[in-house]
Design a protein that fits this description.
The complex is a heterodimer. By secondary structure, chain A is an all-alpha fold. Helices cover about 70% and strands about 0% of the residues of chain A. The chains are: A mainly alpha, B alpha/beta.
């Protein structure tokens, strides 16, 4: 071999006799110490900056820890526990207040005897959600149907106690007739023009009519539960009801609007653009105000929708418009070849979207969707403005309880609210990162 | 001296039965394009294209870039819409009727320059998606069919990988298998080897040769002249949106008639 390489060297060529095996990396570049060496202490300036940074963190967190833990009051029956004069030291957080009000923060003014219904909703919802979110748990399809079709109905019945509203037989007949009539007109039109788009609209309409009929009949059935009006609902329960409804509805609304905006049919496209631009152009507070204060003025006498329901519809439509633009970004990010590949195989529009385009487009915009969902979650607090008592609303209301008026209650309760909102938003954010990684296997 | 607009064609649109080596070929017309014109804005991309394709025929379309060869191919399964003239595939005329378009697309397989595989699905899922959802084939049967075609293109072992995990040549072979899974009557190839590294071109061409030998009706837009010589019944030369010359490959390559074809061949064959 030496003979060969020396000969090669003389002639200016080189042939490797045997390949080098893999060697381990040097020990100072791996592990915790390797990481710290590279990122924190790689030069005198970096050492200085690291120490300075640690000092700043210490100053900030020292205050927070002192307020939240060291100087905090954990137990007490009333405001006296959280007074400096009673505690004998400067009082930081008054957790006793939060502890005493925890039930109210969670359930609002929901009757104490019926709270098991809310808890049942929480438990079923939590179990179902875990079943959906953990990839290794089976029965995904059945669970999906349960969580998106049955659970909302179940939760509605449990929370409201049925008797949501009563409809006379005459009203039933009128509603049924008008829906069938509209269906007939659509069918006739679709048959005449042989339009595929109209055909799918007819199918969607039929589905909607069936769903509405089920919903209405379920809501009028007497389930033997005590009716609880929505103005008694409150606290975290209302926050979660609004957030969950908003998230679950805004995504499909957004997808439909995004597809509509990219449609080749001018009417569909124009309507989608107008809808999106309208809802995106007005502040959510204005929308909620209009829905709760102005809308009743325009409705005929005797017709009244529940205030919470009105807020839910507004939030779903408002965030649907935002979601539409996020989804549109994903649709535009896809290569035209994906559409052509699908078309060439004979896929129709809806199949193409459902099987090929949307799975890819939605995956691309997971960060944007998460962003919108997190914003939606936090903005549920705006319903305070129209007199609903969500988590933030009920916390603000609790400040007026004379039994618990202390200098510390106010900051503690807001700190508590911030923690709850942060926990939910952070959890959603982490889950989205997890999903993104999981769905990205094919790019590795 | 021939004028540019005059179409040179020693092989008439309807060849007589004793014409050439394929005299015993079945004479069912599968694709017919009559006076097809297409504009992109003001640009006249296809000009009076007349083309008749018989079942079992292998056609290679070549020509300089921008000559309309891809556009002509894409008009056959309506990925491009022609404005005047007629395109009839398998007895069905292409109009705005979406149902008829989908019917034709089911019978016409297409392979693209950029593969256009679905990156979020495995190789096997890519191959079964259309049979299951478009042809309503039971999944198990679709998978068996797909594995058969993957074996035919010699990559059954990659069935559970994602397109991003295999090489370009393998991806293109999957794309061919995916189109074959629909059991099409015609296969369209739109520059199937242009996006491939040189060492991968052969594996794709081998699959296409195999397909041709089994009697598949094929229309290929391609610059692989060796492939054209080996399998094509007819070579069509296009320039400026029109068919300038069509002939059997041997005659076309050895004694092209039009100046445009001579110039084109001298450019691509000289290196």
């Amino acid at each position: 071999m030496t003979d060969v390489s020396s000969k090669a060297a003389k002639q200016g060529a080189f042939v490797r006799g045997e390949l080098l095996p893999m060697a381990p990396p040097p020990h100072f570049s791996v592990g915790v110490f390797g990481w710290m060496r590279r990122h924190l202490f790689s030069s005198p300036l970096n050492v200085l900056l690291t120490l300075l940074g640690a000092y700043v963190i210490w100053i900030v967190f020292k205050g927070l820890i002192e307020w939240g833990f060291v100087d905090a009051v954990w137990r007490g029956a009333d405001r006296n526990a959280c007074l400096t004069s009673v505690a004998g030291h400067p009082v930081g957080a008054c957790w006793a207040f939060v502890h005493a009000k925890l039930g109210q923060f969670t359930y609002g003014l929901y009757p104490a005897s019926e709270i098991w219904r809310v808890n049942l909703c929480y438990v079923i919802g939590f179990v179902g959600l875990v079943g959906l979110m953990v990839p290794s748990i089976p029965f995904k399809a059945a669970n999906l149907v349960f969580m998106f079709c049955l659970y909302p109905l179940l939760a509605l019945i449990l929370l409201s106690g049925g008797h949501f509203f009563a409809m006379s037989p005459g009203a039933w007949v009128k509603l049924g007739l008008s829906m069938v009539l509209l269906l007939a007109v659509l069918l006739f039109w679709a048959e005449r023009t042989k339009s595929v788009a109209l055909g799918s609209i007819v199918r969607l309409w039929g589905l909607f009519a069936v769903a509405l009929a089920i919903l209405l009949s379920v809501l009028q059935t007497d389930w033997g539960l005590m009716p609880v009006r929505t103005d008694l609902w409150g606290g975290l329960t209302v926050t979660l009801v609004i957030a969950a409804t908003g998230i679950v509805l805004s995504l499909p609304v957004g997808i439909v609007l995004a597809l509509g905006r990219r449609s080749r049919m001018p009417i569909v496209r124009t309507l989608s653009v107008l809808f999106i631009e309208f809802w995106r152009g007005v502040p959510l507070i204005t929308v909620l105000f209009m829905a709760s204060v102005m809308l009743p003025l325009f409705l005929p006498e005797g017709v009244d929708f529940d205030k919470l329901l009105r807020c839910l519809v507004c939030i779903a439509l408002f965030w649907g418009a935002y979601m539409a633009e996020v989804v549109r970004g994903g649709l535009q990010a896809l290569n035209r070849g994906q559409y052509e590949g699908g078309h060439a195989l004979g896929f129709g529009y809806w199949q193409l979207m459902r099987l090929i385009i949307l799975p890819q487009a939605l995956k691309v915009v997971i960060p944007g969707i998460t962003n919108t969902i997190v914003a939606l979650f936090k903005d549920t607090s705006l319903v305070t403005i129209v007199g609903l008592f969500d988590l933030l609303g009920i916390i603000q209301a609790s400040f007026s309880d004379p039994k618990w008026i202390t200098p510390a209650s106010w900051a503690t309760a807001y700190g508590f609210a911030a923690m709850i909102y942060w926990l939910f938003c952070f959890a959603m954010s982490r889950y989205s990162v997890f999903m993104e990684r999981r769905l990205n296997v094919h790019n590795k | 001296m021939l004028s540019k607009a005059k179409v040179v064609s020693s092989l008439n649109a309807t060849p007589s039965p004793d014409d050439g080596p394929d005299a015993d070929m079945s004479k069912t017309v599968i694709i017919e394009m009559v006076k097809v014109n297409k504009w992109f804005g003001n640009f006249h991309a296809l000009r009076d294209i007349d083309l008749t394709v018989y079942e079992g025929e292998r056609i290679v379309i070549c020509g300089p870039s921008g000559s309309g060869k891809s556009t002509a191919l894409r008009c056959i399964n309506r990925l491009e819409e022609h404005q005047t003239g007629q395109v009839v595939v398998d007895g069905i005329e292409l109009t705005n009727d979406l149902k008829k378009i989908d019917e034709i697309r089911r019978e016409v397989g297409m392979v693209f320059q950029q593969f256009n595989l679905f990156p979020h699905l495995t190789v096997l899922e890519n191959c079964t998606l259309a049979p299951v959802w478009v042809r309503k084939m039971p999944r198990k049967q679709a998978e068996d069919v797909a594995m058969g075609h993957l074996e035919r293109v010699k990559i059954p072992e990659q069935a559970h990988k994602y397109p991003g995990q295999i090489s370009g040549g393998q991806q293109q072979r999957v794309a061919i298998a995916r189109a074959l899974c629909m059991n099409p009557r015609v296969m369209l190839f739109d520059e199937p080897t242009s996006a491939l590294d040189p060492e991968m071109i052969k594996e794709v061409l081998d699959v296409m040769v195999d397909l041709a030998e089994r009697g598949m009706t094929m229309i290929c837009v391609s610059h692989e002249m060796a492939f054209a010589r080996q399998v094509a019944d007819r070579v069509i030369f296009m320039d400026e949106g029109q068919i300038v010359e069509q002939n059997e490959p041997k005659t076309f390559f050895e004694s092209p008639q039009s100046d445009r074809a001579k110039e084109f061949l001298s450019k691509i064959l000289s290196h």
